[in-house]
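Summary for the lay section of the report: proteins are chains of building blocks that fold into shapes. Here we show the chain for Glucose 1-dehydrogenase and then a coded description of the shape we predicted for it.
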Amino acid sequence: MKAIVVKPGEKGATLKDVELKETVGENEVKLRTLRVGICGTDRGIVTGKLSFARPPEGADYLVLGHEGLARAEEVGQNVDLKEGDLVVPVVRRGCSKCLNCKIGRQDFCETGEFIEAGIRGMQGFMREEFVDDAKYLVKVPRDLGELAVLAEPLSNVMKAYNELVFVQKRSVWNCDDSTFGCRKATIIGSGPIGQFFAMVFKDNGFKVTVVNRRDPNQIEDKISRVVGYSFVNTSKGLDDVPESDVIVDTSGYPSAFIPLLRKMKRNGVLLLFGTVGGEKAEITSDLITFFVEYNISVIGSVNASKLDFEQGMTFLSVWKSRYNGVLQDMITKVVKPEETQDAILEKEKGSIKTVIEWSK
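The coded shape description reads as follows.
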């Protein structure tokens, strides 16, 4: 079986034949991989920059890939799926020790002993086929098809949005007409995660601004017009960035979000999503005073539960018809497995989401 293999801590990825003997149990499904998305986490592993990446216990390599879409080929007797059904696998698997993991909320694991497909301790989905426990599989609506490869990144956005709404119950946050129509959200970054945040906030009534340190490319400009949000180039100044109730950072760079904090309204939320390494920033007492005096909450969010995947799948189905062609436009490049390393290491200018096509 062909797979994209890495050795965590070393640079590079290889397409090679591997032997992974996996029999199908009564609660499991054998799956044929159709598409796998490429993201910044994959890039960090292949460049050797992510220290937490590790192979499964007893293995000396890691099969990459966590944004999977697959087709059921063999179904265990206790599984409520049929051969031919499309599914998206959940990435993180719990530690089986803490209460959160025991109730399916391994995205809030308390021990840190979880595993994640294609990232830490579990072989990923960049391979021709795999066997998985049915409880970690999310069925794809019939009309969504191959666009469901976007479900994994969207699931993380759904979780973060749900956290935001929960935290903001600390005060009356609805507008005087009971909606969120008077609230404003600013999203830092215009990659797939930034686009999904913009769509989720927009669908929940917020006025949305997406910012980047450049003008939008042709695809981003089209998406902004179809979805109905504003795009601001912050390299030209911050005057066009509105005062916001929520600032979402998808970049991971303090230099991107700290200058925007003066645009935050009282009782607002800074939602941190992006992760990178290397950049340093100073936290001053004036900044702490601002957070205290303005009742600012800071939320860090990572990963998602099966419920978040299911909610995201519903949104994708709605967006497929509501935002004509936008989801297709977000998939800017489709590559073959043998082109994976170049696609990961050499992200093209203007690219939003690259996916690997394993099978049709």
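Put simply, here is one thing we learned. The mean pLDDT is 95.
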